[in-house]
Amino acid sequence: MYDLIAVGGGLAGAALGRALAQRGRRVLVIEREARFRDRVRGEYLHAWGAAEAHALDLSDVLHAAGACAVPWLTVWVGGNPALRNDVRQTSAGGHSPHCLSHPAMQEAVLDAARAAGAEVLRPAAAVGVTPGARPAVAVRLEDGRLETHTARLVVGADGRESKLRGWAGFRVERDPEKLALAGLLFDGYAGPEESGSLFWNFAEGEQALIFPQGRGRLRAYIGFHARGDTGRLSGRRRVPAFLAACEAARVPAAWLANAVPVGPLAAFPGADVYVRGPYRAGVALVGDAASASDPTWGCGLSLTLRDVRVLRDALLASDDWDAAGRAYARQHDDYYAHLRTLEAWFSTCFCDVGGEADARRARILGRAAGEPDRIPDLVAQGPDAPSDEAARRRFFAQD
Question: Which partner from 81, 188, 307, 344 sits 20 to 30 angstroms from 156, CA to CA?
């Protein structure tokens, strides 16, 4: 019997498995993919997420995998830099955001879990979970054999489309569709590498996000209104449309003049998908399996590390892991609700289109020009930024 079984060996499952194995717990991590590939996942770690990585003793692991600190964030409007912020100045502990390769990060953290003493089954697929006092996971191995393993706690870390949620009886909620996000990897990027850049095209309610990974490699994204047509920026044939959206947002032409796509172009709907109370009967959910936030705002990696750190702390603080799981779920629901609220404000302010939206945006940005702290610092503080009614009125310039 294991102490913990993590279903999913990406960032969430591997980081939690490593953290528990380091403390002498018996851990099994189950990962279905023989190798991790570029599938257009999050590759920007907010400063508050970097703080969580530091608390989990993962910073060196991420740096060894090629993560690079990108301390500045520049916001562009109409082709002009409207704001350039050193995120280190406003983040707790002086942390920088980081840009990194998602597949390289996954491999590095899973290797670190194995080095810490966690057992890893890979490739192997979980095919069922039985909740209870001794929850069990049924696993199909590469050769087709079936095994069943039990643990004190089973953790679902199998992503936004988690199957484990259904097996364990969790109720999944999904917000209405509004935004979508498309991503593409480039080599030959010639823009600044010390700053992430956000280019607003308010007329279309779109944004281009530029996240350099060093040595001329770039992950670029376009955030756009879903409108039932996320496919307009998916697939190799749509690369010219992606570049046209970058041009419309006024990304400097020289930055991408010699850039060559080196990965797939894929777009994903941005609606939040989540579970209220991500623990029941010996099964906990972490990362996207617990709450996949709108990727437009880039909080997925940071939220995952927050989940891992909070659950780790709860498990190490008590021998009653059922109580620890319930404590984690309460904390998770609290900080995720704050984050979801803040992201909804940002979507309304920056992505709505039309005359009323333009007037509201002008009022918000006009007041914020003299008082920048009216806009919650999502990159530095994440869900710890104020999100109560007073903060809402201040953000929307209604005070």
Answer: 344
| Closest to 154 in 3D by CA, of 327, 7, 334, 305 | 7
Tens of pLDDT, residue by residue over 84-137, are: 999 999 999 999 999 999 999 999 999 999 999 999 999 999 999 999 999 999
**DSSP symbol at 369:** H
Distance (Å) of CA 375 to CA 8, 93, 103, 317, 381: 36, 20, 33, 36, 12
**Domains recognised in the chain with CATH numbers:** 2-44+102-175+273-341 (3.50.50.60), 179-269 (3.30.70.2450)
SS3 57: coil
Alpha-carbon distance of 71 to 397, in angstroms, equals: 29
Closest of 101, 102, 107, 100 to residue 14, by C-alpha: 107
Which phi-psi region, left, alpha or beta, contains residue 341 (left: φ > 0; alpha: ψ -120 to 50)?
A: alpha
What global pTM score does this model have?
0.97
Contact 377, 90 (CB under 8 A): yes
> What is the Cα–Cα distance from 396 to 399, expressed in whole angstroms?
8
Helices 47-55, 300-317: crossing angle, 10 deg rounding: 30
Which uninterrupted H or E stretch holds 370? helix 355-370
Q: Please check whether residue 301 is in contact with residue 11, taking contact to mean a CB–CB distance below 8 angstroms.
A: yes
Cα 231 from Cα 240, distance rounded (Å):
14
